[in-house]
Amino acid sequence: MNITDVRIRKLTDVGKMKAIVSVTFDDAIVIHDIKIIQGNDSLFIAMPSRRLPNGEFRDVAHPINAEARAEIERIVFEKYKELENEEGQEVAEEE
């Protein structure tokens, strides 16, 4: 499966969650609500999840191997950095 589209909605609130992402695979299936979160040392992605009656969270959709997770992370972080760079250029142009 190939990632054919990544859409990022940056959050403006100051906090650990930096963006919400939708990733499309083969122009055929999409996973919404992937979160980009600032960890103690670096950014990481959290797959969409739902809270169970016992209070635990369970992923609704997730990669089933490390290679797939690494590829999703690579592309999502690449697009996120592009978005940050574009916003940085816009701020510099306004000044």
TrEMBL record:
<keyword id="KW-0717">Septation</keyword>
<keyword id="KW-0131">Cell cycle</keyword>
<protein>
    <recommendedName>
        <fullName>Putative septation protein SpoVG</fullName>
    </recommendedName>
</protein>
<dbReference type="Pfam" id="PF04026">
    <property type="entry name" value="SpoVG"/>
</dbReference>
<comment type="function">
    <text>Could be involved in septation.</text>
</comment>
<keyword id="KW-0132">Cell division</keyword>
<comment type="similarity">
    <text>Belongs to the SpoVG family.</text>
</comment>
<dbReference type="InterPro" id="IPR007170">
    <property type="entry name" value="SpoVG"/>
</dbReference>
<dbReference type="InterPro" id="IPR036751">
    <property type="entry name" value="SpoVG_sf"/>
</dbReference>
